[in-house]
Amino acid sequence: MIAQLITSFIASAGFGILFNTPKKSLLQCGLSGMIGWAFYIFLADNYVDSALAALIASLVVGLVSQYFAKRYKTPVIIFSVAGIIPLVPGGLAYDAMRNFVENDYNVALQLAAKTFIFSGAIAIGLVFSEVINQIIRKYN
Amino acid sequence: MIEAVLMMDAGEMNVESISPKNRDIIEVCLLAGKIMLQSGAETYRVEDTMFRIAASYGIPESHSFVTPTGIIFSIDGDDPSKLIRISERSTDLQKVTVVNSISRRISSGELSVQQALNELKEAEKAGMAYSIWVRIAAASISSGCFLIMFQGMWNDFIPAMVAGGLGFSCLLYLHALVQIKFFAEFLSSSVIGLVAILFVSTGMGFELDKIIIGSVMPLVPGLLITNAIRDLMAGHLVSGISKGAEAFLTAFAIGTGIAVVFSFY
């Protein structure tokens, strides 16, 4: 569990460097990635459906990024992009692709559909966080 | 008759005395939008920034049409609309941040049109904040970390780091070398596949699939995928669909690169 947290922190901050994020924001990038991944593995370990877990995790990433964005007066995208990187279903997409290549179309299509739903869930989570943010702003 | 000519003259002079200023404002808006779009900002942020800059320079009505490959911007009145073509896109969040703060300062009235233009031109020229070696190191360390996150073994950490680093350097090199899109991703992912197979067949690596997944992650178009869906949900249908197509083709190129290697293995 601790190894998971540390590696997700480093991976998100590393992607911050790849995306040329300003140096002073790297720490927050790593943090938002770590928090999102922690939520995801906690939920997935407790038998929550993986797409739902991804939705909740990306919702959390979105909220955390909006907090950082307001606090440091930078665009949200900086934190949210690095934050969702651990959630991106690269492994699923890869498995789907590999099955396509091995002519196992039934499994491949299943995995592809799963990948699509997974990335949709991430996007919906991010949009939800924005909705929550707008509602809060309206009532303040 | 003479009166009409005089009036026309007066009208033209009037337009000319306003136009240079408006032309500069349009140029500031377009440059800001261009830098943001090239650096991977969301479509709504680009439109919003251009609208705000125009509004704070006293043009309340401006219209823009932003797609990943070009921006059309026009303001109400006699001034012509302008079009900017965008051919090269990358992810450079530093530039997004810089342009964002310039637009904030314009909104608060700190910058004149000329100052803003100079600052934006400087921002456009700025290079990457991290040297190429730092970026390659970041890519390889991230690859190793992804392996652990996907429940891989610590024994495979070094192979994933090497494969990821080599794949990413290959991508950087090819992007500078070849102008054909998706070719760089295709070749880099085949390099990753080859290196991973090499590690596993020499007994230095164990789980082939996990090594490949981890090291392919720096190439995966994660930002594009989410931006595409965000754009679609915000109602920017054209840019959402075209970004989605770009993301799909990139992912397809990566998958094909790995698949080609597997077909020989």
From TrEMBL, chain A:
Q: In its UniProt entry, what is this protein called?
A: Threonine/serine exporter
Query: Quick one: a GO cellular component term?
Result: plasma membrane
Describe its membrane topology. Multi-pass membrane protein
Keyword Transmembrane helix tagged: yes
Chief location category = membrane
Q: Which residues cross the membrane?
A: 50-69, 76-96, 116-136
Q: Which family does it belong to?
A: Belongs to the ThrE exporter (TC 2.A.79) family.
Boundaries of every Threonine/Serine exporter ThrE domain copy: 4-132
- Domain of life, per the record? Bacteria
Q: Which UniProt keywords apply?
A: Cell inner membrane, Cell membrane, Membrane, Transmembrane, Transmembrane helix
User: Where is the protein localized?
Assistant: Cell membrane
Q: Where is the signal peptide?
A: none
Q: Does this UniProt record's set of keywords contain Transmembrane helix?
A: yes
Pfam entry (one): ThrE_2
Task: State the Gene Ontology BP annotations.
Answer: succinate transport
From what organism does this protein derive? Peribacillus saganii
